[in-house]
Amino acid sequence: MVAQRVMGVAARGLARRGLALRRHPAARRQRMLTRHGVDLVLDVGAAGGGYGSELREFGYRGRIVSFEPMRAAFDRLTATRTGDDAWDAHQCALGAEPGTAEINVASNSDSSSLLPMADRHRAAAPAVDYVGTEQVRVERLDDVAGPLLSASRRPFLKLDTQGFEKQVLAGGPETLARCVGLQLELSFVPLYEGGLLVDEAVSMAYGAGFHLVGLEPGFADPDGQVLQADGVFFRV
After folding, report:
1. Side-chain half-sphere exposure of 67, counting CA atoms within 13 A
2. Is it the case that residue 165 has pLDDT exceeding 70?
């Protein structure tokens, strides 16, 4: 989410000067990660590594495993995590079944999705649109996370897949059952055709035993209407 990343850059600049750190959503999230003893973050939809970098800058020292399917974004992710032995990355998308798929590449990269972009997204960000496609490998979360979870006691799952969260979770029921926390994009209007909306996302999380404990700012249109936010869930 572009707005959240911009806010993160500004907040980290303030944090280095000892200012306003506790008000940033990542600082609140980090306190919850610490409280729940999280020792592994599964970073699904890692893009260029912004989320993992934010975890590190706000104090998380446990293991990170990132998943990013697109070539250019994965190259940026690889450069970002260089020198961090506790941060691994896999170049693949996650879905309900293994195979290959065609991902829609957006002009800003962050809005790329395996789903068609909805008109509401284009209206809110007219400078952003799909500019091409790319063939990507798709794996099931349970298949790739199994070996990782054997070395983790309290994993946390973060999903940033531009509407594709339902399919990711369909391929990861065993992984989800092991996780103590979950971060999901909550879309209040359709931004991707067939994408998960907030009511279904929250119901799915609560049905799996999680409770909403925090909201992080997300995507808004030029008039200020909030279209999307990140929900942070933990088992209580």
Report:
1. 24
2. yes
